[in-house]
Amino acid sequence: MQLEDVVTIKDVEKKAWEALEKSIIYYKGHPIGTVAAYDMSVEALNYDQCFIRDFVSSALIFLMKGRTDIVRNFLEVTLNLQPKENQLDAYKPGRGLMPASFKVMSDSAQEYLEADFGEHAIARVTPVDCCLWWVILLRTYSVATKDFCLAYRPDFQQGIRLIMELCLATRFDMYPTLLVPDGACMIDRRFGISGHPLEIQVLFYAALRAAREMLIGAENENIIAAIDNRLPLLCGHIRQHYWIDMNRLNAIYRFKSEEYGKGAVNLFNIYADSLPYRELDKWLPRKGGYLCGNVGPSQLDTRFFSLGNLMAVITDLATEEQSQAIMNLIEARWEDLVGDMPMKICFPAVENEEYKIITGCDPKNIPWSYHNAGNWPVLMWMLAAAAVKTRRVHIAQQAFEIAQARLLEDEWPEYYDGKSGRLIGKQARKYQTWTIAGFLLAKELIDNPTHLPLMSFEELPPELVSRACEFELSSLETKSCI
Ligand code: GLC
């Protein structure tokens, strides 16, 4: 690296910090979060709000820099926004839910917070991921400050418990995964990801692990037992049924169908004709693999979703072997998955009739745009963390250099369009906070891999893993959650 390069990186970093500072939201004089985007050139819509999922990226960089106050304040105010009672009105948010976003309002000089649980959101999507991110962030805060006192406070114990109750409630389906409607996560529009999308399952796993570390006391005994019960099954289910590599593709390709009863091998009755196996046969590198997007009755969504795969590596949900295979795939298919801006939210895009049916003709999600295989710089920190975790830092460095050359000049766009991600997203906001934070985080993780434990977990205890290996769908039929 040349001396001028070092100066340039420092300059970009400085500008990124200035932009991040500008995004901070104050409430009664205290910093409590960051706006989604600070872009004065377009109508704000709800981008002037603090989104829970977006703030996680800001929170991480603040924690790494010892600025714990803003994260603590955020956790406290959002806890206060969480409904503690069940509502009679079915249009109101249920007990335990966390909002997608909130905003500071004022009324005759009195400030107050207004939350959006999806009731104002475009298409009224429900933010299932937000309560999971909240639990994960609380644990991150506790690890960063080496102080679990906040998590042990009775109101926080109740907050975690209510979220766990919501996730572990008795329900209709009999998978260890979480059943959610379409658009319940970062992809908050119709995108054919209803059912058991990978992103939610990985965050669910991490939230269960985080809650397990933080819940204490006799009143939480039942929840702790339910978590212990669920974790290995969830882990085994994802590792087994979501995994795709050449071996697995071969097995699926030759699956028998219409199997009834306990001895079924093709548990979900996947028809090989529903898979793009000719493309996958070409695309899958010999030593690569990934976790697919969704698994359900006669459904295997073979799209690659970055957030789910990267977070599975970071949180130890993927095995060491699977993690290495995921990174092999990213390296081997760099042009498709990273291209000119780290990194694609998913791959490939849905096109033609499929695009119409899956998105409902959404003009924002046309092929190779926005959620439909656009490139989102925020994902760069997850790529960097996964690379550091798998001891393949060069991947993080390579991605960082690509981003560093463009982001400041392009004014920190929310996303990029096109097959390689060279076009600034058609409707992308500029000065998108998680783009800025994602960039700073990637740099910090490369320079200082000791930050990794903020987001990662140890392997599951051996006794739980061995139960996971014994996993059989039939065993689920008898499991009641709480
Ligand atoms: C878009 C993204 C969503 C994000 C929000 C605010 O709706 O899809 O994930 O939280 O913008 O940045």
Describe what you observe in this structure:
This protein is of the alpha+beta class and 482 residues long. The protein has helices at residues 3-22, 52-64, 68-81, 128-145, 149-152, 154-168, 198-214, 221-241, 246-253, 277-283, 306-314, 320-332, 334-337, 352-359, 379-389, 393-404, 433-447, 462-469, 473-476; strands at residues 24-27, 30-34, 50-51, 101-107, 110-116, 243-245, 289-296, 299-305, 346-347, 416-417, 423-424. The protein has a domain at 242-332. α2 (52-64) runs parallel beside α17 (433-447), α7 packs parallel to α11 (306-314) and α15 packs parallel to α17. The protein is globular. Residues 471-482 have low confidence and may be disordered. It binds alpha-D-glucopyranose. The site of alpha-D-glucopyranose has 6 residues, from α2.
Summarize the structure.
It contains 19 helices and eleven strands. With 482 residues, it is α+β, with helices and mostly antiparallel strands. Strand 7 and strand 8 (299-305) form a beta hairpin.
